[in-house]
Amino acid sequence: MSNPVELINNCKKGDRQAQEQLYREYSRILYGICLKYSRNKTEAEDNLHDSFMTIYNKIEQFKNQGSFEGWIKRITVNTVLQKYRKEENLSLVTDNIEEEEEPEDTGYMNLDLATLLGYIQELPNKYRLTFNLYVLDGYSHKEISDMLGTSPGTSKSNLARARMILKEKIEANKARIIMER
């Protein structure tokens, strides 16, 4: 990896080679984030492209304070969330399903990563985004509600519904495996 400060400064000057190098160095990490929040690989690739365009356009705002990688990850998540906010109303579910203190084991750990990622990608947008932000990225319901423009109660409800759907998919997968034996 090159000198990050020099690379960032060259990107701020609009240096295309520096931008290409930035893409090469961080695209795998950011693609993983995009894939996690997207419905499929094509959408993840589009989100990655949009994220890099935002990074290039806003790189002047990075003041070399804190982690650059953390900064571009945050931009990537925000870029994807902003796209979904424009596409649809993420707050359709407004009833309060209280989150369990200790969520029951839904069998996430018994699945291979590709299968679990596939199940997560199949979730409706509002559930997938909430699940990823809360479970995989560790945001609080307050933070999620701020990011998605919903209430904390909606965030809790969407998380509970996402877990319920995932549990049903995992149970169906277990039943299918047992039937195949």
Structure commentary:
Residues 116-164 form the RNA polymerase sigma factor 70 region 4 type domain. Belongs to the sigma-70 factor family. ECF subfamily. InterPro entries: RNA_pol_sigma-70-like, RNA_pol_sigma-70_dom, RNA_pol_sigma70_r2, RNA_pol_sigma70_r4_t2, RNA_pol_sigma_r2, RNA_pol_sigma_r3/r4-like, WH-like_DNA-bd_sf. Keywords: Sigma factor, Transcription, Transcription regulation. The chain is an all-alpha fold. The protein has two domains: 4-87, Rna Polymerase Sigma Factor, Chain: A (Orthogonal Bundle); 108-180, Orthogonal Bundle (Arc Repressor Mutant, subunit A). The protein is 71% helix and 0% strand. The chain contains eight helices and no strands. The longest helix has 29 residues, at 152-180. The chain is globular, with a radius of gyration of 19 Å. The termini are far apart. Residues 89-109 have low confidence and may be disordered.
